[in-house]
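**User:** My hope is that you can spare some time for a protein that puzzles me. As I understand it, each token names a local backbone shape. I would be glad if you read both lines and explained how they fit together. The protein I mean follows directly.
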Amino acid sequence: VKLAGLLFASLTAWYLGYLFAVFVPKETITTSIANLQDIGKKPVLRAPVPKRQKCDHWSPCSPGNYAYRILSGGGKQKLAKICFEDELLISNEKGNVGSGINIAIVNCNCVTDSTDHSGEMMTFIKNAPKGSLLLMATQDDGSTRLKNDAKKLIEELGSKEIWKMKFRSSWAFIAAKGFRLPDNIQKEKINHSDKKKNRYGDWPAEIQIEGCIPGNLI
């Protein structure tokens, strides 16, 4: 009797399985199996995509502060870039990057790329009105034709590296005319060409400075 019952139960289970396979869509079975396999798996936690900040800062400036980022050139392919409050003042995209020291002045709606003309650069700086920011970055070489009187003028703006600049040094600098910038912001960096260490053959790696400037200063 027990054996007959076991055989009957087995045949019934087989028959029910056959009917299930015939009448239930294959997609439903596949989905059900997949859902069973997912039971017990730990949920995958994905970090949210970070919000883009002005001038590609890692963290936002406080309300009422202006973001700036100055990137020197690196070789022939990576051109200098100057950004202020998320606006590219000088960049490859704008087509206004020149060989030499590129300068953008904020607070007078004027932008320039001062190629190899030291005298023109001095005039441009002197004509900048008080209350202006001057943002500078080298592309290729900014030292060969830079005369001492131009170096002295940039030194008077607060540069501590301008007299150390060598052939194809990467240099970035921000200065204020007629007011003082906070002591705790990045104002200047320099990276000299060294054939043993250069990232781009005859050119050193690009450098950058960035920070936030209180809006009440400008």
The mean pLDDT is 84.
